[in-house]
Amino acid sequence: MSAEGSAASRLELIDANGERGAYASAVDYEVFGRYASADKLKKMQRANSQDAVAAFNSLTSFRNRIGSADSAAFAPEPGRYHLYLGKGCPFCHRVLIALNVLDLAKIITFSFVDDERDGRGWAFRARRGADPVNGFLLLREAYEATDADFDGHVSVPVLWDRRTGTIVSNNSGDILVDVATQFRAHANSRFDLYPASLREEIEDLDASLHADVNFGVYAVGLSKSQAEYESAATRLFDRLAFLDERLASRRFLFGADLTQSDIRLWVTLARFDVAYNPIFRANLKRLVDYPHLWGYARDLYQIPAFRDSTDFAQHKLDYIRNFPELTPSGIVPIGPIVDWSEPSGREPLAGASA
Ligand SMILES: N[C@@H](CCC(=O)N[C@@H](CS)C(=O)NCC(=O)O)C(=O)O
After folding, report:
1. 219 alpha carbon – ligand 1 mean position (Å)
2. What is the mean pLDDT of the chain?
3. Which of 24, 147, 245, 347 is deepest in the core (most CB within 10 A)?
4. Is 61 near ligand 1, meaning CB less than 6 Å away?
5. At residue 4, does pLDDT exceed 80?
6. Which domain holds residue 258?
């Protein structure tokens, strides 16, 4: 961390009486500045290039795995791990849906950072509660407990190990796979989100979902020129057309059964018409204009793990707040009115194979 950053953190950890409270002080842009993701954003704005995806991936600093031979230190023990999540973050949303679909929330605990951040990065405040595991005020403390010289981006999700007092991983893709595979003995669910027979195909599809859709919407929203924007938007909407077609004859991306690929795709679809379409100008079509994708999105919304973790008004607000350069007035659009609870009519596709 820079000298300036350390000073800011130290200032934060001590209140007027020299004591550490349960919460970080309020977001304060004047004292702490805006969250400094300028270098990351600059790289990400090179839409459509591998550089952009690589820049995004650089948000991952710790990549140990639960239960793998080379991370043997991290055994899949119930009650040992905790997830620090962001309520509005689509990458956290995936992990949360998987956890709840598999009914694992008693085995792996979770809590939320505050929705807003200043230059200190993610923090714990009254709105989403204190850190129940370590009493940290800033999530940066978890990073520094893992690497005292940590000087990178403080991102969520974070998978924390109570035993070693360190971060196992802050890579949402790896965390999702580990949740889906390493705790199956404790899962109370008919779903196998990462079935051995489909892993190669899932990885292939997930790579295109990541580059063209999950990250693709950011490439559109953060484009710096008309040409960049059009090329990123074309890539995104070509992929959505392909997915719409794929879902014409299959209930889920791999047929009759839900997999992690569906969760990955869904968190972006859930934000599409409230955030990516109006705020990121991803507006060639709306989600509701795709007959199969829209039915599929509603079908998944009927599953409590998807529905209960989703708050469309909140997701809209998150993007207004987090991208002030795109919405300088901060005015929150009143629409759209969309009925996600309308029956999806997709049950007849249940038996279709991948
Ligand atoms: N590599 C991470 C990235 C996740 C990510 O982008 N999280 C956002 C919130 S939605 C974040 O915390 N960003 C921190 C930053 O901008 O440095 C992952 O996929 O798990």
Report:
1. 15
2. 88
3. 24
4. no
5. no
6. 196-351
Residues 170 and 220 in one domain: no
Tokens found for residue 233: 């938007």
Ligand 1 contact, 89 CB (< 6 A): yes
Two tokens, residue 102: 């598999």
Question: What average pLDDT does this structure show over 54-74?
Answer: 76
Q: pTM (2 decimals)? A: 0.91
Of the candidates 136, 153, 186, which is a domain's last residue? 186
Query: Which atom, in ligand 1's list, is nearest to the CA of 122?
Result: 12
- CB of 264 closer than 6 angstroms to any ligand 1 atom: no
Residue carrying structure tokens 């948000």: 59
Tell me whether residue 92 is one of the annotated catalytic residues: no
Which listed residue (84, 89, 229, 301) is catalytic? 89
CATH number at residue 338: 1.20.1050.10
The predicted structure's pLDDT at residue 83: 98
User: For ligand 1, is residue 169 a contact (CB within 6 Å)?
Assistant: no
